Amino acid sequence: MISARPCCAKRARKASCSVHLLHRDATRLEDIPSNHFDWYIATFLFCVMSDALQPLALAELARVLKPAGRFKLIEMRFSEQPRLRWRQKLFAPFVEAVYGARFDRRTLEHLEDQPQLRVTRTSFLKADTYLLIEGLKRGEAPDLPG
Ligand SMILES: C[S@@+](CC[C@H](N)C(=O)[O-])C[C@H]1O[C@@H](n2cnc3c(N)ncnc32)[C@H](O)[C@@H]1O
User: Is 23 part of a structural domain of the chain?
Assistant: First the structure.
């Protein structure tokens, strides 16, 4: 588990499996070897990242995932439903001020610019606002030893 937030240590301790918690900047995972993780999961991480930072974090995502490794990202978006969108617009300044998050990030477009990554599925978890993006790193899974 990688997080920039110290409070994640509490959650990690409560987990039912063993969790190795690293405090890292997702745009600079230099001490993590390439092709290291089977999975990369992030919730509401890219919606706090600017257009300048997203390509850096996605390039690191692509680097640290093993070939055929999978990723899941949950992001928030502006709804297409006028009433809901109106409410989101009303709260957008608060959401950005408190969480740094925005509804108009271009994560899917930035993903398309990463040649090593392929989006395999997108679906909504809540109305048309919480977007689950699933994908994988191109390449063959390494052979298991033995
Ligand atoms: C909107 S919060 C989401 C927190 C948590 N993932 C969740 O779903 O409740 C965004 C989180 O991204 C973290 N964050 C922002 N930029 C980051 C970066 N470059 N590297 C690692 N974490 C970052 C912030 O510290 C914050 O905890």
Answer: no
